[in-house]
Task: inverse folding
């Protein structure tokens, strides 16, 4: 199966700053990657679908100007939380689907905005 | 819209017991079913994948089944161990990935 690496594992930032989270598919060329957000004791919520070489597709209610996604290569997608605020504090996880439509996830990034 | 429900939401069992986690869905037009494990503060680890043409999969002490006609999937864990303590999520692939609400499992030594 695919190996997905996310960086950083955790980050603390000040309100108003921007934070970039990287998602790398180490052994699989992923034309599509998915970004999720997870609140404590809740399931995963799909934020957006990242498409290599084109614009991301955002789910309803997710601000595209707030959560910038760039998928510049087949192995890297980035999520930038712009002008972060405490309500953006959450657990962010990326995933890829391999050729069997089996999903593999990164280890997640814990974002805390203070 | 696909709705995925997992029952129970939480489960606590003594070590050594066999247990069953349940997952139900509303739309039978699914492709694949996948069971995941999530440890606190961590990402998701894929446990089992059942493709749409299959009915069950087994890996070690884990067995997952899929019944599209009844809209149900079960994850059977044999001889549970404290290391099995985690949250278990089921997810279906339709036109996107639909996650269940999760079952938090605690295995007591």
Result:
């Amino acid at each position: 199966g695919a190996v997905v690496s996310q960086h950083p594992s955790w980050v603390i930032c000040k309100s108003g700053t921007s934070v970039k989270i990287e998602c790398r598919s180490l052994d699989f060329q992923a034309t599509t990657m998915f970004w999720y957000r997870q609140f404590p004791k809740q399931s995963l919520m799909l934020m957006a679908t990242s498409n290599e070489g084109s614009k991301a597709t955002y789910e309803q209610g997710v601000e595209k100007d707030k959560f910038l996604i760039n998928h510049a290569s087949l192995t890297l997608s980035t999520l930038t939380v712009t002008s972060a605020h405490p309500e953006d504090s959450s657990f962010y996880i990326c995933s890829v689907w391999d050729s069997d439509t089996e999903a593999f996830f990164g280890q997640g990034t814990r974002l805390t905005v203070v | 819209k696909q709705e995925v429900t997992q029952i129970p939401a939480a489960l606590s069992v003594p070590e050594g017991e066999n247990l069953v986690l349940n997952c139900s869905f509303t739309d039978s037009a699914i492709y694949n079913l996948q069971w995941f494990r999530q440890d606190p503060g961590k990402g998701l680890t894929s446990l089992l994948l059942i493709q749409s043409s299959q009915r069950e999969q087994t890996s070690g002490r884990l067995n997952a089944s899929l019944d599209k006609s009844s809209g149900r999937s079960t994850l059977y864990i044999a001889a549970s161990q404290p290391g099995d303590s985690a949250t278990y999520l089921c997810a279906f692939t339709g036109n996107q990935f639909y996650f269940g609400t999760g079952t938090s499992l605690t295995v007591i030594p």
Q: What stands out?
A: The longest strand of chain A covers residues 44-51.
